[in-house]
Amino acid sequence: MANLAATYQILLFDSYADNNYNSVVLMSDLRSDDIFKGGGDAGDQAMLYRLSQLDATPTEIPQGLWTIYYSGLARANNAVIACENAVGVTDERVAELKSEALFLRAYYTHWLWKFWGNIPYFTDDLPEPYMAPQYSADEIYDFIMADIDAIIETAALPMRTVAENDGRATLAAAYMLKARVVMYQKDEARYSEVLAEMNEIIQSEAYQLVDFASIWPREGEFSDESIFEVNHLPGEYGGKTWASGWAGYGTNLPAFISPNSLTEDTPDLLSGDTYYKGGWGFGPVRTTTLELFEAGDERRDASINQFEEGTYSARFQNTGLFMAKYAARVEYNEPPGDVDLNYENNLRIFRLAETYLNIAELIAVHGVAQGDGISAQAALDAIRLRAGVASIAPTVENIKLERRREFVGEGMRFWDLVRWGDGDQLTENLPDHSSVRTWTPQKKYLPIPQSEIDRTEGEFKLEQNAY
């Protein structure tokens, strides 16, 4: 239990990973066409500007993610080993705990795999010199899938937990992680499995779509739509400090993405009883993202905040638009701890909406037979009905656009473009917003941190990615 708790703890750290501002959803969206880098100027968190320009280098990258997720991998290994050596515990309980550890190992590894591709991997305690062999991205995919397959085969996890276990891994979460990994790998041989599992989640009736705007305030945490989320807590429960990002329970993401010097009387119109706070002005939303939404789409104002000129201080690449889902709100970051690091906004990792949109995509885009599940039309209609907009045909274009609208600010867009082969859409020349970049297929992976290459030697010497 101690090892498993330590493994879950890693989920709380990525917004200030290894004392770097490397929230995984923001690091994903910065390479997309939904937001700009923002902040003070191009040199403010310069590595993030380079990331947004598809121009990262081995010494200017979000290295915190490498450190935090390898820490997660090591902790998950310890939890698995502890389960395998357990005595005096029922087989059923050991199977449940081991499945949770395998889920977390697969989840952490899948982020390393998506960002860097060809990475070191290990499942046992490393002997001296404490280095692991580097594997190809395809080999890493196989390792991830082996853990997910073991969870599903063991069948020890419930489809949904009871309330007191909110935040723990479930069978539905394993299915959702499998869908992301299989679809990113474009492993067509397993598409029918994924489709069946998406339908199983829906048919279980363990989860339901809820009012979109209600998901994001504190009252919406662990809603009926939430399949897996990170349970951040305000500083009063033990706060992060500038000296250490390896403690506490809160998140920095809300401060990072909220407008600078926002006036305190700016209301959160969605919840009606809280107010937005100012932050650092990173991640301004592009006007083209706002324009994606049809008239009456309830997701627009729940996803994007529009603040009037003069209510905040405009910063680099300003558009007047900011991400709303994880926005800083008054009373969401009580001390002790440094307040900007300790917001309580939970990070929603898997939502039922993704389940529906996976079904629509697998059938209508990839040609998987519908079988006994719902149709692509019904899946797409469920999402649009909830958003308050009319039914449209489940064409390739419409399904791709619906995913973009649904997941603004949730770190999905870049990875979707890559797996669809649509990365050319990221090439742009926008001098008015200081964004001039060119997509090439090798940009799929970031360069491996130079400091990590420098630590390896001999047979374990890391081979750098092309960049």
From TrEMBL:
What's one Pfam family the UniProt record gives for this protein? SusD_RagB
What species was this sequence derived from? Geofilum rubicundum JCM 15548
Asked if the keyword Signal belongs to this entry, the reply reads yes
GO cellular component terms attached to this protein's record = cell outer membrane
Keywords from the UniProt entry: Cell outer membrane, Membrane, Signal
Specify whether Signal is a keyword of the entry. yes
Q: Which SUPFAM superfamilies match?
A: TPR-like
Give the UniProt subcellular location, in the record's own words: Cell outer membrane
User: What is the protein name given in its UniProt record?
Assistant: Outer membrane protein
The superkingdom listed in its UniProt entry is: Bacteria
Record's family? Belongs to the SusD family.
Instruction: List residues of the RagB/SusD domain.
Output: 314-465
Start and end residues of each SusD-like N-terminal domain: 60-181
Q: What InterPro entries does UniProt report for this protein, alphabetically?
A: SusD-like_N, SusD_RagB_dom, TPR-like_helical_dom_sf
